[in-house]
Every structure is written in structure tokens, then in C-alpha cells.
Amino acid sequence: MPFTFHTHSGQFCRHASGDLEGVVRAAISKGMLVLGLSEHMPRQRTQDLYPEESDMTTQDLYTAFSSYVAEARRLQAKYAGQIEILVGAETEYITGDSLLEAKRLRQEHALDYLVGSVHHIDEQPLDFSQDLYDRLAVDHFKGDRAAMFARYFDQQLELLQALQPEVIGHFDLVRIFGATASVGDPLLESEEVRRRASRNIDYAISYGALFEVNSRAWKKGLRDAYPQRDLLAEILRKGGRVTVSDDCHGENDVGMYYGRLRAYLQEMGAHDLWYLRRDEGRVQALVLEGGTEHDFWTAQWLAEEGGGGSARMTTTPPL
Q1: CA 267 from chain center: how many Å?
Q2: Residue ranges per domain, the chain?
Q3: 3-class secondary structure, 7
Q4: Which helix (H) or strand (E) element contains residue 267?
Q5: Are the C-beta atoms of residues 57 and 43 closer than 8 Å to each other?
Q6: pTM value?
Q7: 7-303: which CATH number, 3.30.70.2190, 3.20.20.140, 3.40.50.300, 3.30.70.1150?
Q8: How far apart are CA 56 and CA 156, in angstroms?
Q9: In 3D, which of 244, 290, 247 has the Cα closest to residue 269?
Q10: In Å, how far from its chain's centre is CA 155?
Q11: pLDDT digits (tens, 9 = 90+) for 189-213
């Protein structure tokens, strides 16, 4: 029955494609029994609009978010007999006000869950483009990427403490434009960076968060899914709860690289998968024991080219 709790559509996200219903239909066609919808929360300041949003205002973002929740609830009811849909959102953390606003929006829209993600460091975009990433590293951090990584994990902790999101989005997104397909990012092994990452892992485990193992990293040309294998090994060793995510940006991404994702999890010794589901009237985290051996993974689409790929991964020793 595997699942995804991190999804976007072109209907409500400018750098995605298609509509939200297409994402739902794709998930049903691929045998998922639980689907989390998680469009981005609106950013509050005009200076935080992305280049693709040059014709928009912050009010437009708020209007779009309200429309998203209404559409998601409609789909939740329409497809109730075919798939369980949870309606959530992915966080933004740019200033302290972002965290207050996330709490308000969650309450206002009665959201089922949050994907806790950091997309900015010191108010500068992290993952929108290589150019903006390089400006952040070079102009703001004077080329000191270790300091940039450390700051990322400090801000991530602030978000976790403030919101305690049910799902942690792309735990080590900070490596998005700095690593390659052949090696991991060695900065995650530096003492100061690793100490912060480990601290965040411990905190997230303490309140029961799910760490998504996010396949979108492979679309960015990275060696490992998020989180990188040495961090994933630590999460598993400490008893952290892991789930799977495609971070889809449209219906064509649903289940993206899931065959490869399963191989990655098995290589790392992950057997059980956690997921969110409404149980006894509230959303709870449940475990699918032996989740990486579930019948879902034998589906034909996983073996077909373009269906996420099922080619065996090249084994690379942990950093």
C-alpha cells in the first residue's frame, strides 16, 4: 500500500504541472491506499515571491492556498471509496512570523498534518535554482558552505520545535546543488554540521516525527535520496520512523523513482515503513511492518521505464 505525503500540482504551484485531481488519479492507478496532499503554505512578503510569480501578490498566494484546501477536501470526499486522502501543507520558514503563520493556517484550515520543510536560509532561497543557491553560498556565506549547512540545520531545529510537523521534508535539502551522483556531500560529516544534524534527528525522534525518504533527490542528479545514506543510517540506528515520498510536482511524478527508492531502503536495512492514516477519528502514525516487502512493490509500472525505475543501485560504501 505504500504512500506519499509530499505532493504538489501545477494548479497551485507555479513550478509544478497538471492539476490536483490528476495527482489523486495517478496515485489510485499506481495502487496507493493513502495519499497526503501538501501544497506550499503562502509566503507573507512581496520580496519572497519567486521569479515565476512576478505577476502575483502575496494575497494571490493566500487566495490560492484557500482554494487548494477547498479542492483537496472535495477530492477527499469524491475518492473516499478508492483512496484515503489526507489534507496537509508544506511549511515555509523565512522569518519568525512564518512559524506563527503556519500555526494559524493549520488551525484555520483544520489541516490533517504538516510537512516540515526549510527552503530558505537567513531569508534567502535555498532550492529554487542553482543560481540562487550559489548566490547564497558565495555572497551570504562568503563561500563557507560548512557555515551554510550549519545554519540550515539550526533553522530546521527552530521549525521542528515550533511546529512539531508530522513529516520532516527532505531532511538534508541543503545539499541539493552541492553534491553529485557519484559521491555524497562530505560536509555532512564535518563535526559542526553533523553535530547539528544529529541533534535534529534526536529531537524529531523524541516527538515521533516521520522522516520521509524522498526520491526527488535523484531528479536533481544526487547519489542518494534525501536523507543521504549516512544520515539515514543514523536515523534507523536510533529507531527513527521512516516513510516514503516522491515529492511529486504533478501527476507524472507520482511514484517517481520508487523502484530505486525501495532498493535504497533495502540496502540501508530499512524494513518497516510508517505512514499517516485517520484512525479512531484522528490522524495517527501507524507502522507497516515489512513495508519494503509489501506486494505494492511488485506492480508492473515500477518495472517499466519512466515508472520510477527498478534498476538495482550501485552499492557505494557509506561516507
Answers
A1: 21
A2: 7-303
A3: strand
A4: helix 258-267
A5: no
A6: 0.93
A7: 3.20.20.140
A8: 28
A9: 290
A10: 16
A11: 889 999 999 999 999 999 999 999 9
> Per-residue pLDDT tens for 290-316?
999 999 999 989 987 444 433 333 322
d(CA 218, CA 287): 26
**Coil/strand/helix, residue 265:** helix
Which cell goes with 207? 516527538
Question: pLDDT at position 180, please?
Answer: 62
Q: Work out the angle at residue 200's Cα, subtended by the Cα atoms of residues 156 and 117, and round it to the nearest 5 degrees.
A: 30
Place of cell 507573507: 44
Q: Where are the beta strands (DSSP E) in 91-234?
A: 113-116, 120-121, 124-125, 167-168, 210-214
- Go through the chain and tell me how many residues it has: 319
Q: Which three cell numbers stand for residue 140?
A: 551570504
Retrieve residue 245's grid coordinates: 515520498
Helix (H, G, I), strand (E, B) or coil at 111: coil
Q: What one-character DSSP code corresponds to residue 19?
A: -
Q: Is 300 left (phi over 0), alpha (psi -120 to 50) or beta?
A: alpha
Mean pLDDT across the stretch 244-257?
Answer: 96
